[in-house]
Amino acid sequence: MKRREFVKTMPLTALVPAGLAVQTGAALAENAPAAGAPTGQVPAPAISGGSPGTGEVPGFAKYMLTSDMNGLGPDGKPTGQKMTFTGASMADATADAASDQLTLTEEEQAILDGKEGPEKAKLMKILVAFGNAFGAEKLVDLGGAPHSNLFIGAPYMESMIDMLNECADAGLKSYAPYTVNPRPYDVYNVQNNAEEMGLIYQGYPLQAKLDYVHSKLGAPDLNYRSCACYLPEVGNAPESGTYVAWCESSAVNYGNSVLGIRTNRNGAGMDMICAMLGKAPLFGLMTDDGRQAKWLIDVKTSQEPDWGTLGTAIGRKCVEDVPYVAGIDTYFEGGEVTPDNLHKLKAMGSATASSGAVGLYHVEGVTPEPKEKGRDLLVEDYQTYVYDDAEQQRIIDTFENLWEDADGDPTAAFIGCPHNTYHEVVKWGKLVTEALVKAGQEQAAIPVYLFCVNKVRDRLLMEETELAGNMFRAGMHATNMCAVVYSGMKGFGGRVRGITNSAKTRSYSSIRYFPDQILVNTIVTGKIKA
Ligand code: F3S
């Protein structure tokens, strides 16, 4: 089933973009969320059927067994690609071929033998099984700081949270202070009615427990919660070449590509196991071979491409192979990625990671590795995909209207998934408030939710005080939660007709995607206006 059909039938809250994927073969895999998807988590079993460890797939999750990320083309037909969801395509890999080739150092063997306690020994056992399953030959020491996507305190997370607490009680900690994805809800800045508040507190009864264990293991307070951990206001941007073990598809994708760090698309939980050991198995996107591009994406649009649409096209075409994108360096002055233009790659990359499972892309003349190696990054028998105006329009035409009342007017705007940069928040504030002045209105016709880390909101309040006031009066609300999880709340599709600038949000929800100018017009008038 195509993801779009899945979204339409999705019945419950707390559903995060996910795909059920490769099992590690380790103890973790028996109960844990799946590997590799943007959050790698599965829906809460509290709703119906299926319980951890039974091997039973709950009714509500059955469509998650296949997804666009399994290699379905835009026509809904399988592309035949075999997925690992790690961003490391191993088309010919078989379970039988996975062997015990991983060699440990004396120190690692001692940990496995329990010399540093039973908790660390268990973590090492899982890591070794994970590495063996993916053909790793050794573990590497991690640097920089981890990023975790364990952010949903739903009942199905209980065993994972208990495991983390066991580790914290034994005195284990992340090798460095780490960042965590945004929380799944916001009880302050979004107008939740009584029913919605009920859904939040019933849906996420373990949120405080999860937040608490993160704090014990080394995460800072909730003001730093964001999927865009690499923004200057958050500060988790390791140096190029650093090995890390991040989770969160959009962060992995941006980090590998723009920062030049080396991480696979890990499944939720593996982030913390690696963080507590300070090690990860070396395979896939962490290796030179795994970072070679199999696709040349030749962008030939007559104007600046729509970044989310371009990313969607690349994700659908490459699935989890590495693309080498040419023809867009002109939109990055001097070939530099700056705080004022990084949102373009954030939008494109996150779309490649949600419409496909791309964990790394190269941009000719812009991102670090092509600057150094150029087209030597392409494998010998690479394929070429031309993205021109006609192809852009073809992709846009595949974006379905999934609103329950397809002809209704929009009721809310969702801006920023991944989380907005400071530049984007200011840009949207000006776009909307200036359009309102022009229209002689004080308030937007529909509420506008700007998803961003609290630190970005705080910066706005300090540096653009007047604009911040105007935005608030206009009905624009900064919120630090996750856009997609919020839109997965039970009954959301029936209550809300959302519009968004995020191809990732479009990919995982019933919210409709539009270019910026149409969004601004619609926010002002309450009608979808080109
Ligand atoms: Fe961030 Fe949630 Fe979107 S974690 S990337 S706002 S799906």
Provide the helix percentage. Answer: 25-40%
Rg value = 22 Å
Number of strands: 13
Count of runs of 4 or more consecutive helical residues: 20
Summarize the structure.
This protein is an alpha/beta fold and 530 residues long. It is 36% helix and 9% strand.
Structure notes:
The protein folds into four domains: 1-83, no CATH class; 106-286, Aconitase, domain 3; 290-396, no CATH class; 412-525, Aconitase, domain 3 (2-Layer Sandwich), CATH 3.30.499. Helices cover 36% and strands 9% of the residues. It is built from 20 helices and 13 strands. It has a five-stranded parallel beta sheet. Strands 7-6-5-8 form a four-stranded parallel beta sheet. A two-stranded antiparallel sheet has the order 1-4. The protein binds FE3-S4 cluster. FE3-S4 cluster is lined by residues 17, 38, 181-182, 227, 250, 350, 417-419, 451, 482-484, 504.
Key traits:
about 525 residues, alpha/beta, Aconitase, domain 3, 4-stranded parallel sheet, 20 helices, about 10% strand, globular, binds FE3-S4 cluster
List the helices and strands and how they pair.
Elements: H1 3-9, H2 27-31, H3 106-112, H4 118-133, E1 139-141, E2 147-148, H5 158-169, E3 179-180, H6 194-203, H7 207-217, H8 249-259, H9 270-277, E4 279-281, E5 293-299, H10 307-318, E6 323-326, H11 342-355, E7 362-363, H12 368-373, E8 378-387, H13 389-396, E9 412-415, H14 422-439, E10 448-451, H15 454-463, H16 465-474, E11 476-479, H17 483-487, H18 492-495, E12 498-500, H19 503-508, E13 512-513, H20 516-525
Parallel strand pairs: 2-3, 5-6, 5-8, 6-7, 9-10, 9-12, 10-11, 12-13
Antiparallel strand pairs: 1-4
This protein binds FE3-S4 cluster.
